[in-house]
Backbone:
């Protein structure tokens, strides 16, 4: 564990003290918390055992290796090499991991989400500064508020109030345009 | 209909950067680092069982910002008070007074926020800066909230057990080797980007800024072509030197502070040039309104340097701000360059 400023390894006496200590090299105030996982990180990883005399099941991907667990998603037998342990002791194979990531079936594998409510609200508000743009943006904002109302939003707690606000605002803008055009025409 | 159970709860700390905000969330078995720009979100997960360590370092950026805002507040408040005594400049005094009030409120907010910090989270495959945590008080709260969760996932480790464990386990050897590689990389970077050249550029940058401050201060009372030209030569040198610092500076000790100063110096040089050019344009417009149109750039410059700054309050304020800012950047810059140069010399 190094000092973030000078990259000098921190003294063991300055680790896990629950307070800020001075780095002996550069004098920076550093608090370092080390956890037991740090000690198992450098150890050798588990290797898959070979199937001897046909006893035990073989791995789906490596038939000569002994299966140690089955995939929680597709049920295939997996050796220690193919096993991917997810949170809460769940084991899956690489194929299911990739599928889950691509099809966004698993929330805990997602690393990006589009916030349609935020886009709709911006489309309904920012163009108001140069109101001519609302002729195009208001219908788009209204469409987005309706089309993506049930689409998955943020993974953190978030209400749908932005969709509602964007819908109301864009509907008002469209109504304003219709009224304006009608008044000019008559 | 039953409500969805809350998966995440908010942890202290938020930083607005890169047109979005960085926040931290506590999940059932992981820490979620989130960047949101309002239209999309990016996530990074750190499972409690995988976290090897968390390193927090107190930084000086909070204090530097505090000092800059304090100086700006004193400058604007002082000028506002000075102008308020002159009957003709009352609108200017009110404007500067409002500006001083804004700086004062920001100053109070900075004082309440407290010192700044930098927080890093380390796993076997990641070494990530937690951008959401930029204040010491947030770092403390985060550790209070996070530590029990990590301990429940991994078990606890006392401070006494650390030295013995560090000596015996392979993980330490691995990290030491990694540390050596980092040191080698920094040495290599130091060779490629010769620290002496970087130091030379730093000296030129901060020296030029100080000379600029002195020449501008001198030109306040005696504005001549020589002094104004010298001031802009120093400003130009400072701009070139800041570019030199940023391209040659290696990842050696105390470089981050000098790098920040170089960026600020560059921004200052740009702002000073834009302001001077703006001043010249205003002068050109005023002259053209009066029918004394000047199409010759040199003639425009001649008219510019022949202005008596003390006769125009706006010019006086602008020149004083430039002197103050150049001195504020130049003095700590020279000190840091000397300290950095000495420490580098000692390490060799």
Residues:
């Amino acid at each position: 564990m190094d000092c973030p400023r000078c990259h000098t390894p921190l003294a063991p006496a300055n680790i896990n003290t629950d307070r800020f200590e001075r780095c002996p090299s550069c004098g920076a105030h550093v608090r370092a918390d080390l956890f037991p996982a740090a000690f198992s990180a450098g150890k050798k990883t588990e290797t898959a055992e070979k199937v001897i005399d046909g006893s035990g099941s073989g791995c789906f991907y490596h038939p000569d290796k002994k299966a140690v667990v089955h995939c929680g998603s597709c049920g295939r037998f997996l050796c220690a090499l193919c096993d991917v342990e997810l949170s809460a002791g769940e084991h899956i194979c690489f194929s299911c991991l990739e599928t889950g990531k691509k099809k966004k079936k698993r929330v805990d594998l997602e690393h990006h989400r589009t916030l349609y409510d935020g886009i709709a609200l911006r489309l309904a508000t920012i163009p108001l500064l140069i109101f001519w743009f609302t002729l195009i943006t208001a219908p788009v904002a209204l469409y987005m508020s309706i089309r993506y109302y049930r689409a998955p939003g943020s993974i953190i707690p978030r209400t749908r109030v932005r969709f509602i606000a964007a819908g109301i605002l864009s509907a008002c803008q469209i109504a304003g345009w219709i009224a304006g055009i009608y008044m000019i025409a008559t | 209909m039953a409500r969805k159970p809350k998966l995440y709860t908010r942890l202290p700390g938020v930083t607005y950067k890169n047109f979005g905000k960085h926040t931290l969330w506590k999940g059932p078995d992981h820490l979620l680092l989130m960047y949101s720009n309002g239209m999309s979100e990016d996530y990074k997960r750190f499972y409690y069982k995988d976290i090897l360590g968390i390193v927090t370092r107190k930084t000086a950026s909070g204090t530097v910002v505090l000092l800059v805002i304090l100086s700006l507040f004193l400058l604007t408040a002082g000028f506002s008070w000075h102008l308020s005594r002159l009957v003709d400049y009352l609108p200017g005094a009110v404007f500067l007074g409002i500006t001083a009030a804004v700086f004062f409120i920001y100053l109070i907010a900075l004082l309440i926020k407290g010192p700044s910090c930098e927080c890093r989270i380390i796993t076997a495959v990641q070494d990530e800066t937690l951008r959401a945590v930029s204040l010491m008080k947030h770092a403390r709260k985060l550790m209070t909230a996070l530590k029990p969760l990590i301990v429940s996932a991994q078990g606890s480790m006392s401070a006494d057990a650390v030295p013995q464990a560090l000596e015996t386990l392979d993980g330490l050897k691995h990290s030491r080797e990694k540390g050596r590689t980092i040191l080698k990389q920094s040495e290599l970077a130091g060779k490629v980007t010769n620290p002496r050249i970087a130091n030379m550029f730093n000296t030129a940058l901060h020296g030029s800024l100080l000379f600029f401050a002195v020449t501008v201060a001198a030109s306040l009372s005696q504005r001549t072509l020589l002094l104004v030209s010298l001031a802009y030569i120093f400003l130009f040198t400072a701009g070139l030197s800041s570019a030199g610092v940023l391209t040659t500076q290696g990842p050696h000790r105390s470089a981050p502070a000098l790098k920040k100063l170089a960026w600020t110096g560059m921004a200052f040089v740009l702002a000073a040039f834009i302001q001077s050019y703006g001043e010249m344009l205003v002068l050109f417009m005023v002259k053209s309104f009066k029918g004394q149109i000047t199409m010759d750039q040199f003639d425009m410059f001649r008219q510019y340097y022949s202005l008596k700054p003390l006769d125009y309050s706006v010019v006086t304020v602008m020149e004083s701000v430039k002197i103050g800012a150049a001195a504020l950047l130049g003095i700590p810059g020279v000190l840091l360059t000397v300290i950095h140069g000495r420490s580098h010399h000692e390490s060799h």
